[in-house]
Amino acid sequence: MFPGLFREEREVETVITPRIQRGLAWTRLRPGSRSSLSLDLIAEVSNAGVKQKGIPEETWEPNSETAPAGSSMFDLEQTIRERHSIRLFLSQPVPPELINEALALAVLAPSNSNIQPWHLVLVSGPARERLVQALLEAAQKGPPNIPPLPESFKHFRSELGAQVYGAMGIPREDKAGHQAAVLRNWEFFRAPLGGVVCMHRDLGLADAVGVGMFLQTFLLALTARGLGTCLEVSITGYPEIVRAQLAIPAELSILCGVAIGYPDPDFPANKLHVGREPLRENIVFLDN
Ligand SMILES: Cc1cc2nc3c(=O)[nH]c(=O)nc-3n(C[C@H](O)[C@H](O)[C@H](O)COP(=O)(O)O)c2cc1C
User: Fold this and answer.
1) Best of 231, 260, 272 for a ligand 1 pocket test (most atoms within 8 Å of beta carbon)
2) Distance between CA 248 and CA 24 in Å, rounded?
3) Chain centroid, CA 130 distance in Å
């Protein structure tokens, strides 16, 4: 939606207040950052136009605290090239300040009508242990409920599987080895920090784009800080367990999980950078 199209009082209320009403509070970051908007301010926003009255001027300023001094496009390019999925992590804890820095950058991602549709539940310590135990038990009892890929896309998964399991040194016929590797999905690949990415169930495809933008920004910011990541649709395979363990309300759809931690340098599959299709497969240029 184009920003000029919106701004009636009621519309503002439906965009902003549900998140607050449901207690979908932002993690508090630095004072003055977008995420430290107070409830007072939200009340003000719901009674007024968004930019005109509700959000203080400083919220629209770039955050000089988080902008790396002397950064260049090459830093960005290196980070983009460096990010790849990590499938075994060290138990070394993740410093909370790195997560906060990465989140402060991730929320600068664009979104439809600036809804900021992302909702992320981060889990570590005993809460993560309980979730992992429950997921592993479920995974041992039955397969996850993940919609199959459409037929014409299935070959991507088998090609990726061959590369990933090949890099792990697991031969095709080693069923037990495969099973053990797959089960690590529900341990967040042993990462000490797990995340569950959600979005309000009433939002649509364009808003899922916004969540994706948030996620990629988050992953890149984490990569730039030396952390590894892996997004995980597998975490959505047992939604009742995830909801119950993390108290995720029915209003939120669970989109995927994310594992965050320091990569295990001795795990060969962590060095795998999988290839991409040639640009012509997905991009069309039309000029007359
Ligand atoms: C939405 C999403 C869900 C994913 N789910 C899983 C998963 O459940 N398990 C896994 O090992 N990798 C998962 N991945 C990682 C992809 O396999 C990986 O991004 C892709 O193969 C490209 O490799 P790269 O991330 O190393 O560049 C997921 C990625 C995305 C974006």
Assistant:
1) 231
2) 10
3) 21
CA of 151 to the centre of ligand 1 (A): 19
Nearest CA residue ID for atom 7, ligand 1: 232
Q: Does residue 270's CB lie within 6 angstroms of at least one atom of ligand 1?
A: no
| Integer Cα distance of 95 and 26 in angstroms | 19
pLDDT tens-digit readout, 61-102: 444 444 455 556 669 999 999 999 999 999 999 999 999 999
Residue minimizing CA distance to atom 8 of ligand 1? 232
Atom of ligand 1 nearest to the CA of 235: 8
> Residue 125: what residue type?
G
Tell me which fold the domain 73-144+184-282 belongs to: NADH Oxidase (3.40.109)
How far does the centroid of ligand 1 lie from the alpha carbon of residue 77, in Å? 20
**Chain segment 171-190, per-residue pLDDT in tens:** 989 999 999 999 999 999 99
With a 6 A CB cut-off, is 274 part of the ligand 1 pocket?
A: yes
Report pLDDT digits (tens) over 230-265: 999 999 999 999 999 999 999 999 999 999 999 999
Q: How far apart are CA 256 and CA 241, in angstroms?
A: 14
How far is the C-alpha of 112 from the C-alpha of 31, rounded, in Å?
25
> How far is the CA of 131 from the CAs of 14, 40, 123, 243, in angstroms?
32, 34, 9, 10
For ligand 1, atom 5, which residue shows the shortest CA distance?
232
Taking the domains of the chain in order of start, what are their residue ranges? 1-63, 73-144+184-282
